[in-house]
Request: fold
Amino acid sequence: MNNFIIVFCEGDHDIAFLTRILLVNGYKSYNKKVNEFRKPLDKLYIKNLSTKKIADHEFKFQQPKQKVPYSVLEKDDYLVIFHNFNGDGNFKKDGANNIIKMYLSLNNENRRKIEKYEKLNYKFLYFLDADNEGVESRVNAIKNSLDLDEFKHLEITSHDNYDVGCYIFHDEKDLNKYGTLEDVLISLMMKNNETTFNNSRDFIKSNLLASDRQRKLLCTDIEEKPVDSITFKKQKSIISIAGQLQFSGSSNAVIIANSDYIKKNDIDNSTSCQNILKLFNR
Reply:
């Protein structure tokens, strides 16, 4: 019972999609309280939760702490543990190396504390968007951060005392392998739902706002102005608009997790989904 698949994701949309794939392939929710988790993870997570800040004035009280799991699944003697980096910027800034070191350190602690030592076995999986950088660039960034000699997309590589792999979301029709999770999702969701998604796309085209209205509005007693970068993402908005017809007021993560725009048959017949599943099962 010492096998762990640690999954690094840019956000909860990725986790919702990966969970959807795993649930239709025999994985189950792991609904344990933190103090009931497999040892020694229980004490590790309790320690990390004790340092979590609550900043409700920024509406960040539900934002994840990267070293605390966002969600957990199980199958046979494996636990799949998702860590949410809450955005590409945080992923690049903080990386996953500290979390890898955090888990590997448990083996060292066990070695000191337990006479009959049972090694904790880890597989670390990265899921990132290619964006405009492309699949190869993303893979190389992970390779360099882990100081690997060999590391490839869709393959599992053994490194010291753990295994590691990655899937870079991209538009399967793009020869340059650019794109995002949303390219994969829309490809799945549009099947038998073309009219709904085309209408969503047309709605955006007819109602697109100026760029200064696609930014957060700072509104205080002193000033009122748009700040930070543009947050509008066309593909995300298409999914959101179509999803509101089913789940009013819900986030894209909820839509991805629950919508019948994605069915078991879609997952079973998707090359992307099956390639992702192989990383977990290898």
